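On to our target:
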Amino acid sequence: MDLGLTGKRAVVSGGSRGIGRAIARQLALEGVDVAIAARTREALEATARELAEETGRKIVPIVADVSDDSSVEAMVATAADMLGGIDILINNAAVPGGRKVAAIEEMDVRHLLDDIDIKIGGYLRAARAASPYMVEAGWGRIISIGGLGARLSGNYSAAIRTAGVSALTKNLADELGLKGVCAMAIHPGVMPTDAMPADVQQRLAAATSSGRLFDPSTIAWLATMLASPSSTALNGQTIQAGGGIKGIIEY
């Protein structure tokens, strides 16, 4: 299937590893030139070289801190200059998992606000800086990565900050949709890691309707489909992408 993405330009925050890297790679395989952003230059440059060699597309590494207004504005301006514009924004940069606190007496509000500033604030800063390029062109996609913590209790920070991703996405969709810019959110499930014990992986997989866990490539495929010009019927929705949670009916 031709997704109609050849020649598009994308910015992927948190693009040096994990889900961000996988999305950047999949977009590039579909013909997109990509600017990847993160805080660590060495990892960024290594990822950019690898993806450029594999895909043959232009991959631009940009060091940025999404918690800083001027850094995000510079990130977007540099990406637009190096790529010739911006069509797609992938919001992904965040502290992985947030600060895991389940008891209210252990909750430090300053830590919660830091998590929110990085994830929700960072996503908002990037959308604010990138959307004018899309509005001017009359077309664009803003895809934000949340997490299933938004639909589960047990971690104050993860639940609050990822639920905010859906709220931000819907506001962006309603404001920018008539200007040709669609906004979508994805809530990935738990991703297995080498450090995760086999019994923990089995227990987490058993809690899903699919009976398995998924790797970042599955989220990359979904994000790339949503970035396609053919996805115009979707705007403002949040898609759960973790194999399904048993016992919950969504409608």
Summary: The CA atoms of residues 101 and 108 lie 9 Å apart.
